[in-house]
Specification:
Blueprint: H1 12-15, E1 19-22, H2 30-33, H3 36-48, E2 57-59, E3 66-73, E4 82-84, E5 88-105, E6 111-116, E7 121-124, E8 132-137, E9 140-144, E10 148-154, E11 161-170
Antiparallel strand pairs: 1-9, 2-3, 3-11, 4-7, 5-8, 5-9, 5-10, 5-11, 6-7
């Protein structure tokens, strides 16, 4: 948190919550506009998302962050999977279509299998009810912190498909 003054240990409990908004609003959120890391990620999305195709991978210079672009068909809840990441923040942006993303604080989930140290990936059993859900439409983003279990790929009425990108932002950058 040392290089990012707006992320102090005393404020962590207030800040590290799932966040969603339209891409056009990121500059009006002090957490993002005052940070070189967040600004770099959002500016890259503004400049490149529209032309990014499935399988695209971009490494940010000198930041240890990267972007992955993916397409997939949406699923019913019972065929999707909860996950979280311990060392990275997910900035998920919808390029085309929409997807539902259910989220639940990790402490309310039951881990399934071992944590994947190499790819920073923990799966969880699907709870009877999620804590909340966001339908992420084209032009919108969600941010999931390590304490946010999240289950993407969920159906949204009127949509069968999504093209999205995920910027993986290491906590070590803050």
């Amino acid at each position: 948190f040392g290089r990012c003054p707006h992320l102090s240990r005393s404020r962590v409990g207030l800040i590290l919550l799932m966040h969603t908004d339209e891409l056009s609003n990121w500059r009006s959120t002090a957490l993002f506009s005052s940070s070189a890391v967040w600004s770099s990620a959002f500016q890259w999305i503004e400049a490149n998302a529209a032309s990014a195709s499935e399988g695209y991978h971009h490494d940010f210079p000198d930041k240890n962050m990267f972007v992955r672009v993916m397409n997939y068909k949406l699923k019913d809840r019972n065929y999707a999977q909860y996950e979280n990441h311990k060392r990275t923040i997910d900035l998920q942006y919808t390029i085309i279509g929409a997807e539902g993303i259910e989220y639940t604080p990790v402490h309310l989930l039951t881990a399934k299998g071992k944590y994947g140290e190499d790819n920073d990936y923990q799966l969880h059993d699907i709870p009877t009810h999620g804590y909340g859900r966001v339908d992420n439409y084209a032009g919108h983003f969600c941010i999931f912190w390590p304490n946010d279990g999240h289950m993407p790929q969920l159906r949204v009425e009127g949509f069968q498909f999504v093209r999205k990108l995920v910027v993986k932002i290491p906590l070590s950058l803050f």
